[in-house]
Amino acid sequence: MPRFITSPDGHKIAYNMLAGGPPTVIFFPGFFSNMEGTKATFLEQQCRGRGQAYIRFDYRGHGKSDGRFEDGTFSEWLADALLVLDETASAPVLAVGSSMGGFITLHCALARPDKIAGMIGIATSPDFTESIYRERMTEQQRQIMQALGYLEIPSEYQDEPVKITHKLIEDGKKHLLMNRDWIELDIPVSLIHGKKDADVPWQKSAELQEKIGREQCDLILIPDGEHRLSRPQDLDLIGQKVEEMSRVISII
């Protein structure tokens, strides 16, 4: 059964926590995803086997947390992530994020440098709201969203369509990072991306690596990997990287 923490504006944010040794691994799920996903539960099993602390959670409007998905914004989902990080995770933390969760992880690492000691991004989608609007929508779809306030887009991962709101796109403009010359992080960062990712091109991670700096960030490209990276071989690679970075953080 999940536990709940209440946000300042009254939303109940669901999370699961596994007690154990440092560093604490916390998993940040992706857009329209939740803490019951394959990668989130796989990493929990791995951490349990090592006796390592682990946390997974749902943003508002996702999974078992309060709220409707279409009411959420990036600002609110980031605030939920920081709330869970601040209230439940003991330092040092290894933050692992998938897709949008990788972008939220990046923001959390910048906001909490005293707590997050390492970061792993899986198919990270930096500036994802701009990517949706500029790269994934046609001009006709943009006009529909402007007129209705939202656009419904079919999802190959869920039975129901994803509702993209104009409010989400506008809010996302406050959190863009890829327009910076560099992104200053003083922690080890690893980016894992599939070269056959049809949702978030692997070049997004390559560009992010350049902005963080190769001395801080390594990039692992999986030649036949797609967006979800949930095949057994993908999970093994992710699990190996989490274990390796956990050892590095413990030594630092």
In round numbers, the mean pLDDT is 95
Order of helices and strands: EEEHEHEHEHHEEHEHEH
How far from one another are the termini?
35 Å
Q: How many beta-strand runs?
A: 10
CATH class: Alpha Beta
Output the structural class: alpha/beta
Q: What proportion of the residues is helical, as a percent range?
A: 25-40%
Q: How many domains in all?
A: 1
Low-pLDDT stretches: none
Strand content: 15-25%
CATH architecture tag: 3-Layer(aba) Sandwich
Protein model, in words:
With 252 residues, the protein is of the alpha/beta class. It has a single domain (3-127, 176-251), classed as 3-Layer(aba) Sandwich (Rossmann fold). It has 8 helices and 10 strands. It has an 8-stranded mixed sheet, sandwiched between helices. Helix 1 (38-50) packs across helix 8, helix 2 (74-88) packs across helix 3 and helix 4 (128-136) crosses helix 6. The protein starts with a strand and ends with a helix. 42% of the residues are buried.
